[in-house]
Write a structure and sequence with these properties.
Number of strands: 0
Oligomer: single chain
Largest sheet: none
Strand content: under 5%
Shape: globular
Radius of gyration: 14 Å
Order of helices and strands: HHHHHH
Distance between the termini: 39 Å
Number of domains: 1
Structural class: mainly alpha
């Protein structure tokens, strides 16, 4: 299995900086804060998988912010690379809900039905 270069910190930061689009960003600290949002999504999904506590609005807001400062395609690419395979079934419904990826692109990824039902209630 080949290692994804987006999982290596130096390459990830360089790749993210290249695709970063936030004209209001005035410092490296602000850029790093936006990068931290990828980890925030991962942490919130891990919390859901381990404890069953789903903070769907916080996850939606965080993913929306990520999509606003990176192009949607790059944001999805980075999230898919940085978020563990076991969390993908919980992540995918959020990406579909936000129209960041079409449903037919996820033919081989099972969707977490609890997450799907919670998002349908919004």
């Amino acid at each position: 299995m080949t290692k994804n270069p987006l999982n290596e910190k130096a390459y990830f930061e360089l790749y993210a900086a290249r695709h970063y689009n936030n004209p209001r960003c005035l410092s490296v600290a602000e850029f790093k804060e936006d990068l931290r949002r990828f980890s925030d999504v991962k942490r919130l999904l891990k919390k859901y998988v381990t404890s069953g506590e789903l903070q769907e609005r916080l996850i939606l807001n965080t993913i929306t912010i990520i999509g606003n400062v990176f192009t949607v395609e790059i944001a999805v690419e980075i999230m898919n690379a940085r978020i563990d395979a076991k969390l993908q079934s919980a992540l995918s419904p959020f990406l579909i809900y936000l129209n960041m990826i079409p449903e037919n692109k996820l033919a081989d990824t099972p969707l977490d039905l609890f997450v799907v039902n919670r998002l349908r209630q919004l």
